Amino acid sequence: MNGRADFQEPNAEVPRPIPYIGADYIPTEEERRVFAECNDESFWFRSVPLAATSMLITQGLISK
């Protein structure tokens, strides 16, 4: 011991730095496919149910 505390595990992995992705980044076809799939799923499974629920609640409150 050299008098300072070592808080790192002996076999811990050192995290890799996140690469910089700038405006000049061009996604691969696989990444484009994943982006399109995520956009489609977020629309149908998040946006539509939230909008429909909000619409029904608003309609119910207005009709009272």
UniProtKB/TrEMBL annotation:
Interacts with OCIAD2. Interacts with STAT3. Signal peptide: none annotated. GO terms for cellular component: endosome. Residues 24-64 form the OCIA domain. InterPro entries: OCAD1/2, OCIA_dom. It is found in: Endosome. Keywords: Endosome. This is OCIA domain-containing protein 1. Belongs to the OCIAD1 family. Its main location: other. The keyword RNA-binding does not apply. Coiled coil: none annotated. It comes from the Eukaryota.
